[in-house]
Amino acid sequence: MREFTIGKNDAGQRLDRFLGKALPLLPPALAQKYIRLKRVKVNGKGSKRDVRLQQGDVLQLYINDEFFDQPTEENRFLSIFKPNLTIVYEDENLLLADKRQGLVCHADETEKVNTLINHIQAYLYQKKEWNPRWENAFAPALCNRIDRNTGGIVIAAKNAETLRILNEKIRDHEIEKSYLCVALGRPKPPEGRIEGFLLKDEAKKQVSFYHKPIPGGKSAVTLYRTLESRNGLSLVECRLLTGRTHQIRVSLAEIGCPLLGDGKYGRGDVNRRYGETRQALYSYKLRFAFPTDAGMLNYLRGKEFTVEDVPFREKYFLREN
Length: 321
Known about the structure:
Layout: E1 2-5, H1 15-22, H2 28-36, E2 40-42, E3 45-46, E4 58-61, E5 87-90, E6 94-99, H3 116-126, E7 141-142, E8 151-157, H4 160-171, E9 175-184, E10 191-201, E11 206-210, E12 218-230, E13 233-240, H5 247-254, H6 268-274, E14 281-288, E15 304-306, H7 311-318
Parallel strand pairs: 8-14
Antiparallel strand pairs: 1-4, 2-3, 2-4, 5-6, 6-8, 7-8, 9-13, 9-14, 10-11, 10-12, 12-13, 14-15
């Protein structure tokens, strides 16, 4: 329990608005709940959210200690009252989340609170599986990332050993990821392998494709298979043998079949015609191949997880025209 004594400068404020200023990590909806449950008392009694505080009033707050901290990158998850997650799989060691398009994995210059990792940490905190005050260093962490405008499966580790093992397996290409995308036109041949070298321009945040080695370039290999073609669009499955920035987007653009909705490597006129502002790309399938020992995660060997609800597949290929 914490106490606040209302001074001259805070007098006259509504109770709920004072809480919002005094505890910036406490979500407004949770503050309202605590007021209703009388976990917030004014002069020893329950109160209403719109009561005007008077100088000398004593507030007694029966609220978890975490909410009294100052906002930092590490505790912003507390600001999320209702985590918004689609969970593909979960056990005591890890969680597979289906990240929606438009959501960032980690905080960036445009978003600090509404991130995938914050939603996952808020979910585990509210389930009482994890609390930052229980740990000396570890916090649930993402093992892989997906671009803001790409959707699909992201792996979150619940403990340090799981994070270590999965980072090692990803580095050694023992976790297979397959993507679905909508490409313009028809890839020729309909199934194949795209090999080249990718060079990233950090200033422009754009990648260029080269057929021969280039200083600073990184090798990239993409396997693709056309699943269906309709109305000038093709539903294509891709598998990455290397994990480079924008690899699928750049590679398919290189063979003349850029992704629908891709504003960086695609065709603006086609994107506008379809009203698409995000690349039609989804990491829809993940397989724990594990040809080598995976320690405490050996039980995952051979398991495969698939996202069935891929929005653009439903929109362009499953509906009857």
